TrEMBL record:
This is Uncharacterized protein. It comes from marine sediment metagenome. The lineage of its organism: unclassified sequences, metagenomes, ecological metagenomes.
């Protein structure tokens, strides 16, 4: 997960690692974190699981670790809406500068 300040977003709400050219390194880092973890927790907003997450799920199953899931719920929808509203505001502010 990228824990970056809101101003960092460069009009790219998803796939930030690909944009920054570090997707492969991030994928490898996530697999090493899975090695260290007791289980993984998959957050599945809007029934979407991307390529990297599918790879991580497969790897977790392969090494026999537990997988827990968080799927669609009312709170998740609200969080997603807040994120996208804030992202649009950031884009608008950048366009005004």
């Amino acid at each position: 997960m990228h824990l970056l300040p809101q101003w960092y977003a460069k009009n790219i709400p998803d796939h930030l690692a690909e944009h920054e050219g570090v997707a492969e390194a991030m994928d490898e880092l996530h697999l090493r974190k899975i090695d260290l973890a007791d289980e993984i927790f998959v957050v599945n907003f809007k029934d979407y699981i991307g390529k990297s997450t599918r790879k991580e799920i497969h790897y977790t199953k392969k090494i026999g670790k537990k997988i827990r899931w968080f799927t669609h719920d009312e709170i998740g929808e609200k969080v997603s809406k807040i994120y996208h509203i804030n992202f649009e505001r950031i884009k608008e502010n950048r366009n005004q500068e």
